Amino acid sequence: QVQLVESGGGLVQPGGSLRLSCAASGIIFSIYVMGWYRQAPGKQRELVATIHPNGNTNYVDSVKGRFTISRDNAKNTVYLQMNDLKPEDTAVYYCNAELVHSTPLLNYWGQGTQVTVSS
User: Fold this and answer.
1) What are the residues whose beta carbons fall under 8 Å from the beta carbon of 6, sequence distance 6 or more?
2) CA 52 to CA 29: how far, in whole Å?
3) Whole-Å CA distances, 68 to 16, 47, 50, 59, 64
4) Is the dihedral of CA 31, 1, 75, 77 positive or negative?
5) What pLDDT was estimated at residue 64?
6) What is the pLDDT at residue 5?
7) What are the DSSP calls for 51-104, one per residue?
8) Share of the chain above pLDDT 90, in %
9) Which residues on neighbouring strands pair with residue 35, listed in sequence order?
10) pLDDT value, residue 102
11) Contact, 49 vs 58, CB < 8 A?
């Protein structure tokens, strides 16, 4: 059974930092593309960042220079370091694991963790 368990969300003031973690089990973690998505109230879920098995990363423009995604294959864990947080970063953040080119497509989601940026 595949599980993705997020942690690290919470309430933070503007300009503050948080680090999200996502621990995976039930998959061969090292071969999956890992990603963080977020969904704010009334908005569609959007991609925040991805990290490929080879370490290549991608970010949505709004978080470039502020967020850093990383992975520890020995711990089956992906992280999202979020600095200089802004109120518009407020959302539920979801961890995602996808095995590219798999048939059928293997794609899994965590349950989400709330991040609230407010003074």
Assistant:
1) 20, 21, 22, 93, 94, 95, 110, 111, 112, 113
2) 11
3) 14, 14, 10, 8, 8
4) positive
5) 98
6) 97
7) E-TTS-EEE-GGGTTTEEEEEETTTTEEEEEE-S--GGG-EEEEEEEEETT-SS
8) 95
9) 50, 96
10) 84
11) yes
Tokens 């039930």 correspond to what residue? 26
The two structure tokens encoding residue 97: 């694991």
Q: Of 21, 28, 3, 9, which Cα lies nearest the Cα of 77?
A: 21
pLDDT digits (tens, 9 = 90+) for 35-60: 999 999 999 999 999 999 999 999 99
Rounded to whole angstroms, how far apart are CA atoms 27 and 93?
21
Mean pLDDT in residue range 64-75: 98
* Cα–Cα distance measured from residue 104 to residue 106, given in angstroms and rounded to the nearest whole number: 6
In this prediction, residue 67 has a pLDDT band, given cuts at 50, 70 and 90, of very high
pLDDT (0 to 100) of residue 26: 96
pLDDT at 76: 98
Cβ–Cβ < 8 Å for 107, 97: yes
Do 38 and 94 form a contact (C-beta atoms < 8 A)?
yes
Q: Give the up-direction half-sphere exposure of residue 95: CA atoms within 13 A in the CB hemisphere.
A: 30
